[in-house]
Structure formats: C-alpha cells, structure tokens
Fold:
Amino acid sequence: KLFQVKDGRTEALGFCFHVFPWDNFFCIIREAIKHGGNHMNTTIAAISTAVSASGIGIIRISGPEAMDVISRIYRSKGGKKKIKEVPTHTIHYGYIYDGEEAVDEVLVMVMRAPKTFTGEDTVEIDCHGGVYAMNRVLETVLKNGAKIAGPGEFTKRAFLNGRLDLSQAEAVMDVIQAKNEYALRSSMSQLKGSVQKTIKEIRNDLIYEIAFIESALDDPEHISLDGYPQKLLGIVEKEQRSIDGLLKTSSDGKIIREGIETVIVGKPNAGKSSLLNLLVGENKAIVTDIEGTTRDILEEYITLHGITLKIVDTAGIRETQDVVEKIGVSRAREAAKDADLILYVVDSSTLLDENDEEIIEMLKGRKAIVLYNKTDLASAVSMEALEERTSHPVIPISAKEETGITQLAETIKSMFFSGKISFNDEVYITNARHKEALEEAAQSLSMVRRSIEDGMPEDFFSIDLMAAYASLGKITGEEVGEDLVNEIFSKFCMGK
Structure:
C-alpha cells in the first residue's frame, strides 16, 4: 500500500505489487504516520510515576534534544562531569538546577538511541517523590527545551519507531491495568510478542499465496495455476483453524482481562452480605439479624485464587410492601439478568419457600453456583435436593467459619475457562479490537473457500486473501491509520 502526506494527514493511494518487499510495508506506514503528525522532531517529557507523595519520582525525557535538555539543567556533585559525554546506559548522581537555584538532588539515567524504549535518546531523572518536587523538576525540564508529553506518547513513539508492534503497545497498558495474576501473565506474554508472532506467521503464509497468484496472472506462460485452487483450499483451511483457535480463546481472554460479572442473590438473611464481606476481606456490607438490611446493590472487585470477580451484593429477594426495599429487590432482579455468574446463597437451616422458587426460576439457562450456607447449623434442606432442584453445582460453605471458598474458586475456574490456563504456548486474545479483526479475517477466508468451491477465477482468491491479510494487519498495526493510532494511545496514562 502506498501513502502520501497531505495537509498533515496520511492518505492511502492504493496497492502496488512487486515494487516494495512486503516486509517493508510496516516501515512505510510508520514513516507516513510519523511525518504526517510532525511530532517526532520534538523532545517530550512527563512525570512517569504517580503524582503523589512517595519515596521516589521519575521524570522521563525522550527525543532528539534529550541530551541537550539534561545538559542545561544537570550538574554533577563535583561540577566537572559533563552529562553529554557519559557512556550510554549509565546512572549519574548530582543536582538539577534552574539557573543558579538547586531544585533537587537526583540520579540521572542516560540511554542513547536506538537501544531505548522509544528508540530515541532518553533520559530519566530519579528525584524525590514529593508532588511539588516532581513538578518543580518537570517545570525546569520544560523551560529548557522539552514539550509536555501527551497520554501514551512515549509508547506511541516506541510503536512508530518500530520498537513495538501495536499489539505489544496495547499490552503495555494492559500490564498497568492488570487486576490479577492471569491478566498480568497474559499481558506480559503479549508484550513479549506472543500475539505478534502468531499473526505474523499467518500473514506471511497469506502474502506468499497472494504474490504467487499475482505473479501467475502476470506471467501465465511461465507460472501455471493448474491444480492450484485445491492446494490453496488446504492452505486456507489451515489458516482458518489457526484463526478459529485464537477466537476460541477470546472468551477466556475477556474474563482474564475484565473479570467475571458476579451477582449474589438469595432471600433475606441467607448470608449474602456475610459472603461478600468474607470474599472482600473486610466489612463492606452491613450484617444484622434484621431481614431486609441490604436495600441497594454493593459492588466490589476481588481476586479469588487468581480470578477477578466483580461482585455485586443485592437486596434479599422477597415480596415486600416497603417502598425502599421494593426498589432494592427490583434492582437485584435486573442485576441478575446481566450477570456472567449468579451465586445463589441458600440458608441450609430453613426450608425453601416461594422466594427460593422465584430465584431457582431465574437460574434456568444461566451459569450459576448454589452456595449451601450456614453449614454450622442443623440443616433443613439437603444438598442433593438442591442440586436436583436447580441443576447447578452445590457447594457447602460457612461465611461464619470461612469455609468452602477454595472449592468455589475451583468450580468457577472449571465453569468459565475452557481448559487449564497456561501462558507457555497458549495465546489468549484479550482485546476486543483484536477479536473483531480476527473475525473479519475469518470471514474473508470463508469467501476464498466459497470462490474455490464455486470455481471462480483466481483473481477472486487474491482479493479476499488480501482482505484477510489487511484485517490481521490491524492487530499488529501494519494496516491502521493515524486516527486509530491516536485513539488507542489517547487511552494511555500520562508519562507512559
């Protein structure tokens, strides 16, 4: 695909075969976005740690004048060492000066291009972590030639300079936002290039076939397409299996990244709020012997044996004349409709009644676990009867004695994850944008199969193969425009 930059925007001109090596396409796109944006010639700076009182703060500088900026404001302890002359990837002790005023005592890390995160000359100033101190150092940096960085601009430069592909860049933010061990491990796997490697292998196979078809159509005297459609069909089926395998992981990936929307239901005084407090590890919900204490929904994120749950505690479901409680019961019913998982808490010491019957009806066709609570008391209903009545797994727990949580975690894992969660060889699709691109590629490959089965001319194969190739390129950033790149990085935090 060829590009031109016009009025500061990058425009696609069309496809051109056999002129550029396919491996260079990514470079062409990156260069077009870089020059179209006109931002890469500036030197940027930002605070890269949390802006709050802490032991240390880091101000990051990146760009062609990073070394000039730091040389204007840094003085070594002895006043003799010139920071511009030090070897790359070294750390130096000294002071930041604003004119003749010493601003802070610092360590300065010098990293010269290209072996840096952004691919540019980079300087990191480790200063004291006070909010004023960090802002004072940043202000001094900006006064001496740097511009304030936008959200995610350091990572964006790493992408545009070819240090990361787009899937790896997005994984950087996923690492920061990871809520549990699985999410962190998945994000680190993607940051190391697991998605990039898989997508690149599929794209390389597709582009080889595209080039072969185009060459054969251009030079039919020397390159024969006899019997080729059947050969291509086998290749397409292979790539479809690869893409389908990735798409199957997207359900697990969504749960790994975002957590399981979990709603606790039950009739009043079944122990719902006690269960929430046990899972959260603190008294978030009020617990009393008075029925109807919980009147509104309470939401908390918890990590249960590596799985993130967005727990919603609800009002006890029952018929009531209390206006406020009635609203709470209505909200409980609505929350249960949208839940990924329903935890139905049953008071094992009391008989089932019409309120339980309503809840059991809600569980039909849903992912649910019945929690057989208050096992420290004499039982009035058996686990076997509950399992038969609800057709869902029943787990004995005691919120009071804090038992049954491990079995609950294992049951949730087996219910939501298709197999054992492993990040050694398995690639998990956790990004909705990636899933959409894979679905587009799968649809294009289905069109290729249909064309082969219908005996269509070979140039039809090439069109749909190229569409699949382009869709997969959206994942790695090889087929994206400037607007999408800007949108993705605008969601990053400052200083990253």
About this structure: The first helix runs from residue 25 to 37.
